[in-house]
UniProtKB/TrEMBL annotation:
Residues of the signal peptide: none
Superkingdom of the source species: Eukaryota
Region: Disordered, residue numbers: 1-22
Gene Ontology CC terms: nucleus
Example GO BP: cytoskeleton organization
Pfam families with a match to the protein in the record: BRWD1_N
Domain BRWD/PHIP N-terminal: 35-118
Protein name, as recorded: BRWD/PHIP N-terminal domain-containing protein
Amino acid sequence: MPARSGLGAASARPTRLANTLAPASRHKPAIAEASSTRGPVRLMELELYFLIARYLSAGLCWRAAQALVHELEQYQLLPKRLDWEGNAHNTSYEELVSSNKHVAPDHLLYCRRIGAMLDKEIPPSISRVTSLLTAARQSLLRTAKGTLI
């Protein structure tokens, strides 16, 4: 089957996400205006965006990954790389995937291990019933006081 490119290639799943992005997304875009109203985006958020895109790229929502990667690159919302002098440089999604080979598409799911550690430290009200979406003692984001982080 011939390789397809472009966002309109909807019938066959691409083998590489970068090949499916519009060419404009591969250029260095202007800084996002949204960041000026909210302030700078923390590294943890940038890494989370990358992990979400990585997770979506290997599943049934690969088109959502395409759109997300396009916006991450357009608004420079990917972690920057530092050179040997400490200067920050923008990176593309594919560069991040290549330089982080240890990060598998399902890496985001490893966060569930945190729940087991938390359960030992701060037990939930009902065992084995925890979620990121619940509140108080059932939330994976709970504190010892029963509040959310």
